[in-house]
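Thread: "does anyone have the structure for this chain?"

Original post by V.I.:
We have the sequence but no experimental structure in hand. Need at least a predicted one for the grant figures.
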Amino acid sequence: MPDVQELLGQSPAIEGVRETIRRLLGRQQGGRRPPAILLQGETGTGKGLVARMIHRMGPRARGPFVDVNCAAIPETLIEAELFGYERGAFTDARRAKPGLFQTAHHGTIFLDEVGLLPEALQAKLLTVIEERSVRRLGGTQPEPADAWILSATNADLPAAIRAGRFREDLYHRLAVLTLRLPPLRERGRDVILLAEHLLAHACAEYGLPSKKLSPGAEARLLAHPWPGNVREMENLMERLVTLAANPVIQEDDLPLKVRARATTRTLAEEVRRGAVSLTHAVDAYERELILDALARTSHVQVRAAKALGITRRILKYKMDALGIPVTRPRARPIRRQAA
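Reply from O.Q.:
Generated one for you, tokens below.
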């Protein structure tokens, strides 16, 4: 079975992704034409990483992997970039050039942000996928372009279809199989696992001594909604490595937006904007109440539970469920009696 353990995480959400990939690749090792796969997920959830992993472990691993960011290519150039052109096809076409689909022949092409493709280009892309051949701009004969199609989007393509911005027939060709990558806020303790991994990686990259997170910093990372997902966390870990003075990163080392306490008003606004779900908002506020109670009682759980009006057993259950680390109470200084 394919080894997909490089997809870090222990949460049920990410384990479900790993199992889907194992099942998919296990059935495709002998297939001549693997099915098109659409990766869905918010910005920064790792769609590009997963696409490369699928290619590397799939039946087209010996062929090229061509990564195309559909949002980064100007609309006036994207057709020539994807499908190529003949000499004289337009003013600056001084020589013929193959397109990215031909470059990916017998390999994989990854169409990132496919939902942003111009409507005029979608019909030609559909033809290329169905016929496995392309006709360059200015050309008269089709040329083979047999590539495994992986695509990704953070947009709601069914809604785009209803609005007339995306072709339904193209969607069905791209989404033979779909794979949803969960946002970081749905992955529980994976937040700390990823933070530790990215922190160690950043220290190694910058040639700096290793650092670790304090329990308070971990609690703030768990409470943060991570709108930028893993990409936001990677940026934060690099920032902490270069700016934090001590080997243990404290809560105060975190930027204000991460260490800011959750309030009912801010969480309601996040839910209203669709940035977080109601479940996450409730969890985040409950986490804040528990953290506050623990801080006020020097992390003595019996006293914190009493302050919250619950039993210690319920408090411990909620701490485990919300990923709140257990911090030992501070030892009281021993008073020595005068001799």
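V.I.: this helps a lot. The longest helix spans residues 278-296.
O.Q.: and The two ends are 72 Å apart (CA to CA).
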